[in-house]
Design brief:
Blueprint (H helix, E strand, L loop, with lengths): L1 H34 L10 H7 L23 H9 L4 H12 L13 E2 L9 E2 L2 H14 L6 H7 L1 H9 L7
Parallel strand pairs: 1-2
């Protein structure tokens, strides 16, 4: 009897896992659809769509990052593009990190001397606090699920640290 209950529970858990995976896919698709609306899909609305193209492409959310200095501020379109090509919050943070810390990825490869929090057995330097706060704001704007400190440390920080210590494997 208990063996049959165990099998039924296992089957329910597998179904629940499949449903959660499907839900994550739907949420990701929903984010993509919000980034790229399909208003021009039907020819009936083509003229209306073309008229809207002349309007300025600003939105309420563009004001979100106005307090960030211009040299570290990215347009919402650029951020959406980076997010679209990222596989998750850690990968998105890594891609933003490359743009926020260009001096680390130059020919001197200073990135090997840095980690997110610094320290460790190699006594690495910590990334700049101010730019880390900008990084956090960009990541949390698109991925609010990593707002919790433990989630941030488990999903974002390791991806950045891995990229900082990874050698250039790609030869172009």
């Amino acid at each position: 009897m208990s063996e049959m209950i165990g099998r039924k529970l296992d089957a329910m858990n597998r179904r629940q896992d499949r449903m959660e995976i499907s839900l994550r896919r739907i949420e990701k698709l929903d984010r993509v659809l919000r980034i790229f609306p399909t208003t021009a899909a039907s020819p009936i609305h083509q003229e209306e769509y073309m008229d809207n193209q002349s309007l300025p492409q600003t939105s309420v959310s563009d004001d979100e990052f106005l307090d960030i200095p211009v040299q570290w501020r990215f347009s919402l379109i650029e951020l959406k593009q980076i997010n679209l090509h990222s596989t998750g919050p850690g990968n998105f943070a890594k891609n933003i990190c490359i743009k926020l810390y260009p001096e680390l990825f130059g020919p001197d490869n200073l990135r090997y001397q840095y980690s997110f929090f610094g320290g460790g057995p190699l006594q690495k330097k910590e990334l700049d606090h101010v730019r880390k706060s900008y990084l956090a704001r960009y990541v949390l704007y698109f991925h609010p699920d990593v707002k919790d400190a433990d989630m941030w440390k488990s999903k974002v920080v390791p991806k950045i640290n891995e990229y900082l210590r990874r050698s250039n494997q790609r030869k172009e």
